[in-house]
Write a structure and sequence with these properties.
Layout: H1 5-9, H2 75-87, H3 95-99, E1 101-107, E2 110-130, E3 160-165, E4 171-174, E5 183-185, E6 194-196, E7 205-206, E8 210-211, E9 220-222, E10 231-233, E11 242-261, E12 279-286, H4 298-315, E13 320-331, E14 333-340, E15 343-350, E16 355-357
Antiparallel strand pairs: 1-14, 2-11, 2-13, 3-11, 4-11, 5-10, 6-9, 7-8, 12-13, 14-15, 15-16
Length: 370
């Protein structure tokens, strides 16, 4: 084994583990008027929107729809939907869907009321990035308030987020992670620049008394993560030594949706209806909608009044309501009774997509996947 001084020099120094601060110190953040409430390492939470300068437009009742009903599906449609359903299941024999005789079809059409409230919420927090010569504008002018910053809204009724630097809050500070040096000790080798040779496990020999050819008998090899330097560019400042520190505005647009489905006695579970659409009978979009009135099923009108009231109370305190939309769909549900192999069975066809639910399909087999 090679016992020269060169070999010993490659061993890790004592105390070489380096742990930089986990969060920026409070001294990194300036006191910005209007933003004093932000905690170090945290944000402000969602900020209540200002009171509108002008009263919002009053909601208006939508015109009454003349037709609320649609006819039931045909027997041919029900049979074809059942056949496609059976074909989509590898363990289902097709005989019941092909040879079964339909004895009755009962319509259980139901209504789904949906209220969507499109909101915008804002919060602020301190943020930083590597300083590479960006403009620095802290204290050149008073920083605008969070709700005074113009941020174009996306298309309505779609979730979206956007971050924006608050003007006149940026300053340059030494990086807190590397103390302004631009480099931090390598985590893989603890700053030594070398690691135990994986071939000889640090012994310097292999195969009896033969010198390890991988490390030339030294027992250690250069660290590939830092190329033997013992340090890497600081991940926080990207080796630039300084950070641009500023207040970040976080804008979040959310489409808040609540549904109400009128109960029906068909036996089909309501959760099945969440994946299908119905015939749109009614649609109303306003800044604030007026609850549906005069609907043939009073349960829909009652649900509309309750949800409109709940959305106003729930979202107006922490977000700005931009728009609301209410719709009523008639979801077709047909309970089909059929006879096959001397027994009576049922299945459901529902939605514009003619989805099928047949929990008691009478001809199944076990498939073995090799």
């Amino acid at each position: 084994m090679n016992n020269s001084g060169e070999g010993y020099a490659m061993f890790a120094p004592q105390g070489s583990n380096f742990h930089g601060p986990s969060a920026p110190p409070a001294s990194m953040f300036d006191s910005v008027p209007g933003y004093e409430g932000m905690a170090v390492g945290g944000g402000s939470g969602y900020l209540p929107p200002p009171v509108p300068a002008y009263p919002p437009p009053a909601p208006e009742p939508a015109p009454t729809q003349p037709e609320w009903n649609i006819p039931s599906i045909s027997e041919d449609t029900a049979r074809e939907a059942f056949r496609l359903y059976a074909s989509s299941h590898c363990c289902y024999r097709k005989a019941p869907a092909v040879d079964g005789v339909i004895t009755s079809m009962d319509a259980f059409n139901t209504y789904r009321y949906r209220l969507e409230t499109f909101t915008e919420s804002r919060s602020t927090e301190w943020d930083h990035e590597a300083y590479t010569g960006q403009p620095v504008d802290a204290y050149t002018q008073p920083a605008p308030g969070p709700w005074d910053i113009q941020v174009p809204a996306p298309a309505p009724f779609q979730d979206h987020t956007q971050d924006k630097q608050v003007p006149y809050t940026s300053s340059v500070k030494d990086c807190h992670t590397c103390m302004g040096s631009g480099r931090t000790p390598c985590k893989e080798c603890a700053g030594a620049g070398n690691k135990v040779c994986w071939v000889c496990n640090g012994s310097g020999i292999r195969g009896g008394d033969d010198q390890c050819s991988h490390c030339n008998g030294r027992g250690r090899e250069n660290c590939s993560h830092c190329d033997g330097h013992g340090s890497n560019d600081c991940e926080t400042c990207k080796g630039k030594r300084q950070l641009l520190v500023y207040i970040k505005l976080k804008v979040k647009w959310t489409n808040n949706i609540d549904d109400f489905v009128v109960e029906q006695s068909s036996g089909l579970k309501v959760e099945n209806l969440s994946k299908v659409t119905g015939k749109e009978l009614f649609k109303d979009t306003q800044y604030m909608v007026y609850p549906v009135m005069g609907f043939p099923d009073p349960a829909v009108s009652q649900a509309a009044e309750r949800l409109v009231r709940d959305h106003q109370a729930k979202y107006s305190s922490s977000a700005r309501i931009l728009q609301q939309r209410q719709t009523i769909e008639l979801i077709p549900i047909t309970k089909v009774t059929y006879k096959w192999s001397g027994s009576i069975h049922t299945y459901f066809v529902y939605g514009n997509e003619f989805q099928v639910n047949a929990d008691d399909y009478p001809a199944t087999c076990c498939c073995t996947i090799m």
